[in-house]
Structures are given as C-alpha cells and as structure tokens.
Amino acid sequence: MRIDLNCDMGEGYGAYKLGLDEEVVRYITSANIACGWHAGDPMVMDRTVRMAVENNVGVGAHPGYPDILGFGRRSMACRPDEIRNYMVYQVGALMGFCAAHGTRLRHVKPHGSLYLTAVEDEETARAVAEAVVSVDPGLIYVALAGARGRAMARIGREVGLRVAYEAFPDRAYTPEGTLAPRALPGAVIRDPDMVAERALKMARDGRVTAVDGTEIELEAGTLCVHGDTPGAVDLVRKIREAMESEGIEVRPLWGA
To answer: What's the pLDDT score for residue 230?
Structure first.
C-alpha cells in the first residue's frame, strides 16, 4: 500500500506570511503551490519551489480564481475560455520557476472555489482539464475522491490526463461526499489523533465517516492537509507516523 501526502503551500503574499511551510514540508511528499491569483507572488513562488526541491518534494500548481481578497474561496461567474486562460497563465508561471530550479512540475490541483465548482459543474471541469493538458499532457490532474468527484476525474481522463484522487482527513464530509462548508462548526478538524485516524481509514480502507455517521466510500491516491490549519505540523506528522507504523509507503504522486 502507498499514499501521497500533499499540502497547499506558498500562500503568503508580499509582507504577509500564511502557513507553516518550512515545518510542514519535512513530512509531505507533494506541494500544491499557489500561483499568484488567490495567494502567492513571484518571490513566494520562487522560495516555495526552492524549498520543495531541497526537501525532495514533488511540485504541483495550485491555481485558482483571480480573488486575492477572498483567498480564492468566493464563487466567480467565468466563461470556460476565461477559466482555461486563467489556468494556463498560472500553471505556466509556476512551470517557469520549476525550470529555474532544475525541477519539473508534476501535478495540478485547482484551488478553493474553482476546485469545488469543477466537482459540481462539468463545463468548468472540462475547461480546467483542457487547460492542463494543453500546457503539458504529462501532468497529473488531482480530483476529489468519491462519487462526487467522478465526473471531474472522467473528464480529465477523456482529455488524456492521468488522474489522482484526493481526500481530506482534516476536513469534515457531508453525507453526499462533499466537503462540509467551512462556515459550519467542525468543518475543519484540528485534533491530530482524529485526523491521523481518518487518514488511515482513507488510505487503508477507502472510507470516511461523514458528519451524520454515514460511511462513504472513496479511493484516494493522495491525502491533503491544509498548511493554514492551526497545528498543521502536528497533523501531518501524526499522519506520516500512522502511515509508516501500518506499513503504508508514503511517496510522491509522480513516483507512484
């Protein structure tokens, strides 16, 4: 058994720092790096790619809506051609920093509201997938694990991309298999032992318990921990220790 551990990183901006990237990077195998439109800027992107390379962590692009004030978590009414070009612009920018640091971009994971819209809306999902494959058909496309993410994954495969299913041990799930809205109490899980237990269940059993006790089936190739969650370092360290204690190999997406 094997699993990838990913984290959203490089989400500072200018003088503002967000997340515990320097500490978290020691425990993950893939980094989803903000590309400047919901967070990040050229200096932050440069530092974060360099840090990932130094820690042998796979680099992925984390593009979102042009929404710095809302951190990319607000829905935006964008045409498919706008979404495609927004994606190409952001992924291309991060590819430039990868080239400057002698590494390759390995995967693309949409951020925030763009990710959730792609899960629910096939037109958005197709625009995102077509943008990724137009830049580099060898990139891995990260899609939500479970029944609700199947359309997003199917479209990725239709355009010729390799797809990796993603689950979130530090987020609560609805009975329908989507992430509970952050505004709901308990939507973000902060207890390291609970998060590690959920991560093990996802990786080993392919299941997660929803907020109402429903057991949801999901097949995950990568698990995400949010770097801006309080105690993120303890969460990801506990997950890594739990995986290794159960004999589950932790390795990057591109090496799977």
So the answer is: 74
